[in-house]
Amino acid sequence: MTYVAFLLFLCLISCVPSSPYAQNTDLKLPLKAVNLGNWLVTEGWMKPSRFDGITNKDLLDGTQVQFLSTKLNKYLCSENGGGTVVVANRPSASGWETFRLWRVNETYFNFRVFNKQFVGLGSQGVEAVSNTPTDSETFQIVRNDGDLNRVRLRAANGLFLQAQSETLVTADYAGSSWDDNDPSVFKMTIVVNNLHGEFQITNGYGPEKAPQVMQDHWNSYITEEDFNFMSANGLTAVRIPVGWWIAQDPTPPKPFVGGSLEALDRAFTWAEKYGMKVIVDLHALKASQNGNEHSGARDGYQEWGDSNIDETVAVIEFLAARYTRRPSLAAIELMNEPLAPGVTFDALTKYYKAGYDAVRKHSNAYVILSNRLGPTDSKELLSFASSLDRVVIDVHFYNLFSEGFNNMNVQQNIDFINNQRSSDLSTLTSANGPLVFVGEWTAEFARNDASKEDYQRFAQAQLDVYGRATFGWGYWAYKCAQNHWSLKWMIENNYIKL
């Protein structure tokens, strides 16, 4: 090569644009990860005491209630499930007689009916026709001091709802009696009270208290010392669930409060200090991909679909752009646990392709695609994922949540891991296909009589099998009030060795 040619060569290579993001070439697979659940996305079952300071904490958003008229001995009912009047003529209660609470404050609520309209005041009495709640659809639940489930419902006009007859329910009663023959007195039954997520805790504490409550939690639940502990005990990565509202931090839409983004920033810094990797997992999507509390759902309805794709992609792009230069970034997971058939395969793959493209605009980090829960083929994403680069399919394996596990003894649980789960992994694993990640598993199982040795054997079987997953595994979770769900407790008490 002549000197001139050499100078030209140097010029050419210097003109090649450098990568806009860190390459993360030091990623060592498979990962041994743990989920930092209940940190940046609340899951009340993991630390129930977080809700103790909420007034009327049995009436959080999404609580399902029924109202029995003490005078008529009949239930309030949204006729036809909604879209018309509310009556009081049902001797027993099911879906049309059940109302989901939207909490306005400690004592005021909106009532959402079966077909998703809201109960309000109308020209024909009380009706359920509005698709959005206003003052007219807001009621105060006045509880009797001696019996909190004996209630009266004060409407926006200041008067009480009354069952004048089985077919006429109005909001025009001014009395104050708590007698059984008073038409404004109802026996309230709390049918379902199982949503204790981010929406419930922030809206439950309200705008004055929630910011401090959440900040105190973020500052104490996961600390630098935890990353030190994880790294020292053989873990190489964390999977961090986040909610869609993090992209609008520090002023996310109410009732969510700012601060989770700063906590996530700290996690990246700690991961880098202790030689760990980070998987950012979009766990809670606006409109909810599965209706569960960990999706940030307000009332348990699963409403995510095609119309939500663009705004969800925007969250992914925000995360990818923010963390692309962090050397600890290993992967971004586009969605946690979409539930079939509510989330259709077409909508999911359309979103996954758009989310993948959004990540690739900023980062070469792995993109993780969560399998759908529900009645689906576990291989349904294989063909789609095989056309993309550096992608991972996430499967969640629990010996729980299905009646089939309830009657298994300890050895049968272990055999299920060694046989069925091993086969499930093999089915998803191919030489040129996507990598596989057992993103959630736990050492808890449906036995009330298991010994410490039983738990050790069950955990070790999963470590052996899931250790063959090409991308790695992630234990659920690092901390939990229920000990066997807490990897920290399991390690400290010699139930699990990595």
TrEMBL record:
This is Glucan 1,3-beta-glucosidase A. The lineage of its organism: Eukaryota, Viridiplantae, Streptophyta, Embryophyta, Tracheophyta. The keyword Transcription regulation does not apply. One of its GO terms (molecular function) is hydrolase activity, hydrolyzing O-glycosyl compounds. Gene3D superfamilies: 2.80.10.50, Glycosidases (3.20.20.80). Residues 1-22 form the signal peptide. Residues 214-479 form the Glycoside hydrolase family domain. The keyword Lipid metabolism does not apply. GO terms for biological process: actin filament organization; polysaccharide catabolic process. Belongs to the glycosyl hydrolase 5 (cellulase A) family. InterPro entries: Actin-crosslinking, DUF7910, Fascin, GH, Glyco_hydro_5. Residues 56-191 form the DUF7910 domain. Keywords: Glycosidase, Hydrolase, Signal.
